[in-house]
Amino acid sequence: MPTLNDVTRGRLLYGGDYNPEQWPEEVWAEDVALMREAGVNLVTVGVFSWARLEPRPGERDFGWLDRVLDLLHAGGVGVCLATPTASPPPWLGARHPGTLPRDETGAVVWYGSRNHFCASSPVYREHALRITADLADRYGGHPALRLWHVNNEYGTVCRCDTTARHFRAWLRRRHGDLDALNEAWGTAFWSQRYGSWAEVLPPRRTQYLPNPAQSLDFHRFTSDALLECFTAERDALRSRTPHIPVTTNFMPLSAGQDGWAWAAEEDVVSVDLYPDPGGPDGAAYGALVQDLTRSQAHGPWLLTEQAAGAVNWRGVNQPKPEGLLRLWSLQAVARGADGICFFQWRQSRQGSEKFHSAMLPHAGPRSRLFGRVRELGAELGKLGGVTGTAVPARIAVLHDWHSWWATLQPGRPSDRFTQEQPLRAWHRALWELNLTCDLAHPEADLSGYALVAVPQLYLLTDAALDNLAGHVRGGGTLVCGFFTGVADADDRIRPGGMAARLREVLGIGLVHEWWPLAEGELQHLTPLGDGQSTAALWREDAETAGATTVAAYRGGELDGRPAVTRHSFGAGTAWYLTTLPDPAALRALLGRAAGEAGLRPPLPGLPAGVEAVRRGGLLFLLNHGRDPAAVPLPAPATDLLTGRRYGRRVPLARHGAAVLRTAPPGGGDGAYA
Known about the structure:
By secondary structure, this protein is an alpha/beta fold. It has three domains: 5-161 and 212-386, Glycosidases (TIM Barrel), CATH 3.20.20; 395-596, 3-Layer(aba) Sandwich (Rossmann fold); 610-667, Sandwich (Immunoglobulin-like). 30% of the residues lie in helices and 19% in strands. It is built from 18 helices and 28 strands. Strands 11-10-12-13-20-19-18-15-16-21 form a ten-stranded mixed beta sheet, sandwiched between helices. Strands 5-4-3-2-1-9-8-7-6 form a nine-stranded parallel beta sheet. A five-stranded antiparallel beta sheet has the order 22-23-28-25-26, covered by helices on one side. The radius of gyration is 26 Å and the shape is globular. The two termini are 28 Å apart. 51% of the residues are buried. Residues 664-673 have low confidence and may be disordered.
C-alpha cells in the first residue's frame, strides 16, 4: 500500500484546505502565486463541493475542477483531492428524505449545514460511491494528485428506522442470537427482555435512564457503520488509483469513532487540531493529540487542519499571540507530523465560517498573519530531512474508545468525569516531565515499553487484563489509575469492585466502595512530593493485599486508607492510584515510577515551560512559557532553523523554538533508544 512517504517525497508538506468554488475564477491565479510565495506544496480541494460537482442528480460539472488542478500543478502545488460526501447537496435530501439523519426523538436533521447524512442509508451510500468513482476515473491520472481525502470529520449519528435495521444486523453478527443479546445487555433488569429482533431499536428517548449496554453497543455500531462508508469510498479509490494513498481527517480526541480500528484502515492517518490559544492547556492538549495520532499511525502522520489565528466556534475567539502559530506547528513536527496544514487557505467572505481565520486572511497578503505564514513555510522547508523518521518513546499510555463510551453513560457513581479527564491529567504530567510517550490499545504489544500508564480504563477485556499482567510479570512497570478494570466488555461489573487478575497484579484486595468527590471538594493526602498533597474527583476505599501504601488519605471518611500503593509482581512493579492527585503530586509520582524504570528526559535542567522532544536525530526545543528562557546543552549544537551554532546554552524567546542537530549525551538511555 502507498504511504505518507509517497506524498512527502523528502519534504514536509505545507498548505491547507482550498475552496476555489467560493471565489471568482480570476482570483485563482493570485491564489497559486501567493501559495508559491508562502512555500505551500499541498492543498486539499473539493471537501464541500458536491453541489458544484453534481448540481442536479446524475449531472457532472468537472470543468472548473479541471482548471483548478491544472493551475495548481503548473504552480508546483500538489493536490489532496477530497470526496465531497460529507455534505450532500440539498437535492439529495429533498428527493430522498431517508438519507437525512434522525435524532433520539425521531426528528429529522435537515440539510442547510453539513454532515447531514444517514450512514446506514443505501441511497446515500449509492450516490456517495458514484461521485467518488467518477472523481477517481477523471483525476486518477492527473499529475497534481498526491493524496485522496475521504469525506470530512466523520461523526454523524442517526437513529432512524433504516439505522435500526442495520443495527439489528450488526447485533446478530456480534451476539449471534437473542438469548446472547439479552444476556449481554442485562435485560432481566427493568423487564427489558427482547422476544423478537423487530423489537430491538437504537437508543431513543426514554422515560428514564437508558440501558447502558445497549448504548455502548450503539456507540460501537455507529463507529462501524461510518467506517463502512469510509472503506467503501476508499476501496473505490484504491481500485482505480492503487498508487495514491487514502486518508480521512480525525477530530482531535473525539469520542465518536474507535480510532484504533479506523487508523488500521487508512494509508495515512490525519487529524484536525484546534487548541485554545487563550487557555492554559493548549500546548499540553496539542502534545496529547499529536502523540495519539502518531501512535495510531505507528509513525509519521498528517496535521490536516489547524487555525492560523482565531476559530469561530468558541464563545470568545481569540487569535494566536505572536509566535504561537510557529511554535505549535513545530511541536507537531517534533511529535511526528510530516505535514502541517490549515483550515483554510483563503478566508471565506460568506457562510458560517467567515470569521474563522485562514492562511490568507481578510486583511490580505500584506497582513501580519500572512507574513507569519510565509515565514513558517520557509522554515519548514529547512526540515525536510525529518520526514519519515521516528519519535522514540519507552512509555505507553493506554487508551480505549470502548471504555470511554462506557464512561459516558448516566447512572454512574459520579458524572463529574469521563475517561478523557484522567487521560489529559496524566499525559500532561508526563509532558511536563519531558518524558515522551506513545498511546496504545490495552491489548497491544507492550514489549517495547519500560513503563505502561493506565490513567483510567473502566472497561477492560480479559485479553487486556492478561496483557497487563504479562507486562508486569515480565519485568515492566505499570502505573494504574482509579476505577480501572471495573467492568467487562458488556459493561458488567466484575466481582470485588475490580477484576481479580488486576487486583492480584496491583496487590489489592477488595475495592469496598467508591467515594467520588463533589465539585470543589479536595481530599488531603500524605505528601507525594515537596509540600502538602491533595486530590480531587475520586476516592476509593480499597484494601491492600500485599501492596505497600505509598500515600494515604488524611482526614475525612477514608482517613488512613491507601491512596497510592506499590506492589512487586513477578519481575516487575505495579502502582495503583485510588484518586487523582494534584498536578504537582501526580508529576512527582509518575516521575518516580519512570525513574525507577530507568527513564529520564532528553535534557536535564530544563526551564519550566520548555518542551524537549527528540525526533530523527534532532532535538526540538519549544518554549511554551510567557518569558524568554535559556536551555543548557551538554554539547555544542546547530539550529537548523537559523543556521546558528550554540555552545552550552540556547536562548529561546517567548514562544521561541530551536531545532538542534546534536547527539544524545553519554551514549543514551531508554529515552533515546
